Amino acid sequence: TDVPHASPLVRRYARELGVPIEETEGTGPKGRILVEDLKRHVRACFAQGRGQGPGNAAAMTGIPPVPFVDPSAFGPVHERALTRIQRVSGPALHRSWLNIPHVTQYDEADVTELERFRRERKAAAADRGLRLSPLLFVMKAVVVALEAHPTLRSSLAPEGDRLVVKDFFHFGIAVDTEEGLVVPVIRDVDRKGIFELAAEVAATAERARARKLRPEDLQGASFTISSLGGIGGTAFSPIINAPEVAILGLSKTRVEPRWQGPPPLDPSPPSGRDREETEDGGRRSTAGHFEPRLILPFSLSYDHRVIDGAEAVRFTTRLARVLRDPVQLLLV
Predict the structure, then answer these.
(1) Whole-model pTM?
(2) Spatial distance between the Cα atoms of 133 and 131, rounded to a whole number of angstroms
(3) Could you give the 3-state DSSP secondary structure of residue 190?
């Protein structure tokens, strides 16, 4: 058989999509296969396999499908239909997982001062009928980190030879609904204050739970944040929302003892004079001591084709530093 005509970039894109290039009909000059031909082939395969379950997507990529084992042979069972959100989001998540080499960087931030700052402003927010959730402050901190690391707000071009950096800060925010998670987009986070964001996030979440989101409400994000801290958990690896290249996951805060003072391995032993009075009238060493601090665990999943480990950890370190010092958020 004749070898299909296609450029090296198109062949690489075909490999990333898992599309057999010899099965793709080319529409370019002399039958040359173009990127649009690959996209058309993928759309046709999904349209043909719609309603046949996730096994069809696995077959498209050359991955052997998981064989079905009838559980009714072992005991009583019952069936439950997938929700509309699950039917739509499932293939998209599967696509992202198969096409993007995911790596997750785990980190944590001391948010003690940030939480104190938030609580001091709860009454002012309540007077406006607003609730100041920790997520709002994380959104503003992410803006600071993304300004320093623009690669994390980019997308990989279809040809795979360049990045498209988004000069806007539209964040997808995962919202838990009865039918599953949806990810509406909050636009221009960098241009809005905490109170304005509080009103918009609350209204958007309410529309999501009432199933009143429009298609455009779910499009155009440059970065996504998924927060499970209100439910529980210590860490998780969120799946990237393609064509984005990174997603931040927030887990439940916890109180932990943290060392305050010089390094504990400092060879100079504290003297009897190295003590200070505490707020409760006690005495503690000024040479160092443990304090209870509020710690926020978070995780960053990123596309390893675009972001390497060094850049990812620089991003998470920058984010943790901003969250530790809420004064920095006043400058955003």
Answers:
(1) 0.77
(2) 6
(3) helix
- The pLDDT tens digits for 8-35 are 888 888 887 778 888 888 888 888 899 8
- Domain positions in the chain are 8-73, 88-257+289-331
What is the tens place of the pLDDT at every residue in 96-114?
Answer: 999 999 999 999 999 999 9
pLDDT tens-digit map of 240-268: 999 999 999 999 999 999 998 888 776 66
As assigned by CATH, the class of the 8-73 domain is few secondary structures
From the number of C-beta atoms within 10 Å of its C-beta (0-12, 13-18, 19+), residue 71 rates as: exposed
Cβ atoms < 10 Å from Cβ of 6:
23
Q: Which residues contact 271 (CB under 8 A, 6 or more apart)?
A: none
Is the CATH number of domain 88-257+289-331 3.30.559.10?
A: yes
| CA 194 vs CA 22, 47, 189, 229, 329: distances in Å | 53, 43, 9, 19, 10
Residue 304 annotated to the active site:
yes
Candidates 5, 94, 102, 304; catalytic one: 304
